[in-house]
Specification:
This protein has 189 residues and is mainly alpha-helical. The protein contains ten helices and two strands; from the N terminus they run ααββαααααααα. Strands 1-2 form a two-stranded antiparallel sheet. The chain is globular, with a radius of gyration of 16 Å.
């Protein structure tokens, strides 16, 4: 069972895409697929970098003096990945549901691969990050089912170790994104 309903997922898609458009990320629609793939992968790499620093999956720190405060940590970057997937899925009018992706056989293998594997802590998280990167690399521009599979796997994985934390982090990050400046202060991509 996935911790985010299809109705909430549709809402996340709509809000993520609306916010991204308001912040200038879709000024040149459609965004090039290689850019989107790199952005998806960058969120996984950022989560890995926090893991390298010794942070647990659900650990969050506040950085800077911004209001609202900017939160960082592995789960925040995985929430960013999910938000980016939601934004892209909405941009191309995806009709796939999160629950259909969660029922995919690849998604159901998470329990076997990660929970019962004997891997623990950082080794388990790094193995999961590599799985996400492999899926991102194999995703094509219009394969929204695979993109939603990436989102569903990430939600299920995070919920196993900290139930409800990923949904809360997605909500917090989306609220923060609504306050950010146009193109986050001048980023090109």
């Amino acid at each position: 069972m996935i911790g985010i309903s299809d109705e909430l997922w549709k809402h996340i898609q709509e809000v993520a895409h609306t916010t991204a458009k308001e912040k200038g990320w879709w000024d040149a629609e459609p965004r090039p697929w290689p850019v989107m793939q790199c952005l998806f992968a960058s969120e996984v790499i950022e989560a890995f970098e926090w893991t390298r620093k010794g942070m647990k999956l659900d650990e969050i720190v506040e950085v800077g003096n911004e209001v609202p405060p900017k939160k960082e940590g592995p789960i925040v970057d995985l929430a960013d990945l999910i938000i980016r997937v939601a934004d892209y899925a909405e941009s191309i009018g995806s009709l796939y549901t999160l629950s259909s992706a969660a029922n995919d056989s690849q998604c159901r293998l998470i329990e076997v691969k990660y929970y019962s594997s004997g891997l623990e802590g950082y080794n388990r998280d790094c193995t999961f990050y590599m799985e996400l990167l492999r899926l991102i690399d194999n995703t094509s521009e219009f394969n929204t089912h695979l993109l939603l599979l990436i989102a569903a796997m990430t939600i299920i994985y995070c919920d196993h170790y900290s139930p409800g934390a990923i949904a809360e982090t997605i909500q917090s990050k989306m609220s923060y994104n609504a306050y950010r400046s146009y193109r986050h202060g001048g980023k090109v991509l």
